Amino acid sequence: MNTKAARAIIIENGKILVMYRNKYGSQYYTLVGGRINDGETPEQGLVREVREETGLQVTAVRLVYIEEHKAPSSEQYIYLCDVAPHAEVAIQSDSEEGHMNQYDLNTHHPEWVSTKSFDHLHFRTPQLHAAIIKAFKKGFPKDVIRL
Predict the structure, then answer these.
(1) E-assigned strand segments in 13-70
(2) Which residues, including other chains, have CB under 8 Å from residue 60's CB and lie 6 or more apart?
(3) Among 77, 73, 76, 78, CA closest to 2
């Protein structure tokens, strides 16, 4: 079964918010976000996931990329997001990620990374990584691009 996920591109003050993952020893970066639950729209799932993983409140979204993967992986809906003014970002302790972090086997840590150093990250999906790097130079697409 092919699942669906929603991920957020959040940029502030020359930095992009990414999620550092250490998944059973495999270390990489990805965007904040995750699986869309049954009965949720991609936008609702995105808002929930961003809150759970960072504490941030999403105020506006625009779909910019759809990244397709073969089963059992998920189809990813990637949104350019605005968020409400905030303090620090942190995994919420009552979230799935908060519970996993307690066991130190599959950990999640949100981090702000300079857009200039983003291209040096070990990013989970190369095609999305390349699309974001290109968008930093030329702007994000007006129409949705399938990766």
Answers:
(1) 15-23, 26-35, 58-67
(2) 81, 82
(3) 73
What domains can be seen in the chain, in order of their start residue?
3-146 (3.90.79.10)
d(CA 16, CA 13): 8
Measure the CA–CA gap between 119 and 137, rounded to whole angstroms. Answer: 12
pLDDT per residue as tens, the chain (147 positions): 558 999 999 999 999 999 998 888 889 999 999 999 999 999 999 999 999 999 999 999 999 999 987 766 679 999 999 999 998 897 777 767 756 656 666 788 899 999 999 999 999 889 999 999 999 999 999 999 999
Contact call for residues 56 and 83 (beta carbons, < 8 A):
yes
Distance, in Å, from the CA atom of 75 to the CA atom of 4, rounded to the nearest integer, reads 5
List beta partners, residue 63. 79
